[in-house]
Amino acid sequence: MARSAPRLTVTREAWPLAQTFRISRGSRMTAEVVVAEIAADGCRGRGECVPYPRYGESVDRVVAAIAAMTEAVAAGFDRAELQRAMPPGAARNALDAAFWDLEAKRTGTSAAALAGIGPLHALTTAYTLSLDTPERMGAAAAASRDRPLLKLKLTGAGDLARVRAVREAAPQARLIVDANEGWSERDYVQLAPGLAALGVELIEQPLPEAGDAVLAKLAHPVPVCADESCHTRADLDRLAGRYDAVNIKLDKSGGLTEALALAEAASRRGFAVMVGCMVGTSLAMAPAVLVAQKARVVDLDGPLLLAQDRVPGLCYDGSSLHPPEPELWG
User: Fold this and answer.
1) 314, 306 contact by CB (below 8 A)
2) How confident is the model over 66-85, as a mean pLDDT?
3) What percent of the chain has pLDDT over 90?
4) Domain layout of the chain by residue ranges
5) Can you tell me the distance from the alpha carbon of 153 to that of 32, in angstroms, rounded to the nearest whole number?
6) d(CA 243, CA 241)
7) Which of 61, 169, 225, 236 makes a 20 to 30 Å CA pair with 175?
8) How far apart are CA 287 and CA 285, in angstroms?
9) Element (H or E) spanning 138, and its range?
10) Concatenated DSSP letters for 201-216?
11) Which residues face 31 on adjacent strands?
12) pLDDT band at residue 319 using 50, 70 and 90 as cut-offs
């Protein structure tokens, strides 16, 4: 039986958050996502992305970029051609995930098997505490004190007090922090030793991407992780000597295909690998679970920050994240 021509559709969705999500560059109450779906031969593959203004993306532009691929997909365009046809970013991520999902469903196997990855195992994810006053972050930490790994959003002034409040409220939790480019060089020099003394294990993107070269000349009392500075394998040469780790996000890399290659290349270069996410639903997290199987730090808590996740979604048992079921993805 001849295969039917693949049909691409794209939709936008808005998912309310459980509470305001604050980082150094702003706050929001809704996760706006874009879903690409490719249907063929009675199967459908889906992928979700989260457009991010920091990278010049908007929901409108991402929807338009995906819709522009409709004829190419119908003509038999495949995942390999996608990597050449679209730049890294949210739009390519949604399409890349949809191709992986469709191939898994057409072949009756799993995306993990297609990627050459063994059986997937459960992961321990970080749980994010939004930027707030020390008192409120301490209260949030007390409510999450049984979670093994907490990630704190920071901004500069007052950050040691914030981390100290969290440490006192959740003394057994491992801590990582994320400044989202919100520190100056002076902030870094003043804060890093104190964070080390409080047991912080990782500092994400302390300085703006355009000014991070100075990190090669500064002491790292806590390992430093590139987030906004790391998108694809092409960034690794520039990051060497500045960072100890890289945070791989599918919306930055342009999808699972590049993310897997980036993880392998980063490990070969001696970078520790963290796998992170934007705030989205379980459909956005599911492909990242494959990359996260060998990651040193996993931060795939997006659905835990929503008022309600999509159904079916990923299974979270506290901070334990279980592999996706085929009904969701892959």
Assistant:
1) no
2) 96
3) 95
4) 7-114, 123-321
5) 20
6) 6
7) 236
8) 6
9) helix 134-143
10) EEEE--S-GGGGGGGG
11) 15
12) very high
The string of DSSP codes covering 10-49 is EEEEEEEEEEEEEETTEEEEEEEEEEEEEEETTEEEEEEE
**Catalytic residue ranges:** 153, 249
- Which amino acid, residue 142? A
Angle (nearest 5°) at CA 278 between 287 and 15: 95
Q: pLDDT grade, residue 26 (50/70/90)?
A: confident
Q: Mean pLDDT across the stretch 237-258? A: 98
Smallest CA-to-CA distance from 101 within 301, 286, 310 is with 286
Half-sphere exposure of 130 (CA within 13 A, CB side): 18
Element (H, E) at 164: helix 159-169
> Residue 1: its pLDDT value, please?
47
List beta partners, residue 143: none
Assign domain 7-114 one CATH number from 3.40.190.10, 3.40.630.30, 3.30.390.10, 3.30.70.380.
3.30.390.10
pTM of the model: 0.96
Tokens of 111: 């995306």
Tell the burial category of 117 from Cβ atoms under 10 Å away from its Cβ (0-12, 13-18, 19+): middle
3-class SS string, 54-109: HHCCCHHHHHHHHHCCHHHHHCCCCHHHHHHHCCCCHHHHHHHHHHHHHHHHHHCC
Per CATH, the homologous superfamily of domain 123-321 is Enolase-like C-terminal domain (3.20.20.120)
